Amino acid sequence: MQNDIVAALDIGGTKIAGALVDGRGRILVRAQRATPSQEDGDTVMGAVQSVLGELSADSLWGDVRALGIGSAGPVDASKGTVSPVNVPGWRGFPLVERVRALTGGLPVTLIGDGAAITAAEHWQGAARGHDNALCMVVSTGVGGGLVLGGGLHAGPTGNAGHIGHISVDLDGDLCPCGGRGCVERIASGPNIARRALDDGWLPGPDGDASAAAVAVAARAGDPVARASFERAAQALAAGIAATATLVEIDIAVVGGGVAKAGEVLFTPLRKALDDYATLSFVQDLRVAPAVTGTDAGLIGAAAAVIAGAAASEAAVSG
């Protein structure tokens, strides 16, 4: 696969992105549509079809040998289905089957969006060279994935490492997943903003009440805004430390829109991690910002295809 081109899809609640990616991780062709997330399943699939149609119209499409999908979850890679929390029209939706039909039977690899950012950061980003890592996306939701023993560990259904739904507050708020006190319920962008507003933070004249606006206020010294980010950092630290204690990772990479807050998030995160990661074998755990940015889902979906092909070739030659 090293010299071949793979197609990649990155499916989220806001956008459906597609790309043609070469064996060195370079994006050669792009396509994107808004996700009609509140529409029925076939309408959402229509946006996927439109992205694939644009990609397949490119002259490079004839060189594509396989396709990878990184999707908001939960996903079930064993069944080829997706049930994104923020796309209610897709519940047990047979995405792999539908995409395969649209692409003339190309091999399709499905992973969750957390696993996709993990594959991207391990291949091209901050986790490169690390055999054991947790990579996270902190945005509208909180997802994650694991690298263990030098390779992506997606688990049987593709959801391993989904740190957003570890409970870090036993008496905390109910989460849409059905759990209580989940990392996502505290540390996601909408929940950072919600907490700041509930505690008395007031948006500026433009009325922007997003987590990005809270980050600007925190950077300017607003104590309520800072406290909301500190609470989010504490939740992330608790989840990261629990993961490190369980599987002995040595780096946690944090990406996504919330990570763009920079040191407003990372300074309290590193401080809180010192309080939670106390056992000797996790005390050297590092936290680093992701570097693959908004292309992480596409690069990761491609990486999963390429890694899978390489493993298959190794098994055959072995």
From TrEMBL:
SUPFAM superfamilies given in the database record: Actin-like ATPase domain
Domain of life the protein comes from: Bacteria
InterPro entries xref list: ATPase_NBD, ROK, ROK_cs
Annotated Gene3D superfamilies: 3.30.420.40
Matching PANTHER family: N-ACETYLMANNOSAMINE KINASE, ROK (REPRESSOR, ORF, KINASE) FAMILY
Family: Belongs to the ROK (NagC/XylR) family.
Protein's recorded name: ROK family protein
Organism: Streptomyces triticagri
